[in-house]
């Protein structure tokens, strides 16, 4: 899957991260760990931190600095109302696209079966 998976993830990663944050606030490493636990092992931690900066700048999350036992304070991200609106739009778009792709796949499969008869 490699390169194709990477390209598809680029377009959906923001929505995926917002979905994770909709469950509960988290800091960057926690988000990366959750993604890896869900099978997204190829996502680099740096990718998540860059995305968090972007969604913070776009006003989709609130950030709180929380003291850390090791090192500097952690930035804990929580989704805000703008982020929830963006997430709702993401899910709507995802459902639309997934439905159309499944429909296309089914049509192609049906056409192949008809052609084999």
User: What coarse outline follows from CA principal-axis ratios?
Assistant: elongated
Question: Percent of residues in beta strands?
Answer: 5-15%
What does the average pLDDT come to?
Answer: 91
The major sheet is characterized as: 3 strands, antiparallel
Give the fraction of residues assigned to helices: 55-70%
Fold and architecture overview:
This protein is mainly alpha-helical and 117 residues long. 69% of the residues lie in helices and 12% in strands. The chain contains four helices and three strands. It has helices at residues 2-23, 28-37, 45-57, 81-116; strands at 26-27, 61-66, 74-79. Strands 1-3-2 form a three-stranded antiparallel sheet. A hairpin with a 7-residue loop joins strand 2 and strand 3. Helix 1 (2-23) packs across helix 4 and helix 2 (28-37) packs across helix 3. The two termini are 32 Å apart. The model has no long low-confidence stretch (mean pLDDT 91).
Topology readout:
Elements: H1 2-23, E1 26-27, H2 28-37, H3 45-57, E2 61-66, E3 74-79, H4 81-116
Antiparallel strand pairs: 1-3, 2-3
Outline:
It is built from four helices and three strands. With 117 residues, the chain is mostly helical.
Describe this protein with a few key phrases.
117 residues, three-stranded antiparallel β-sheet, 4 helices, 3 strands
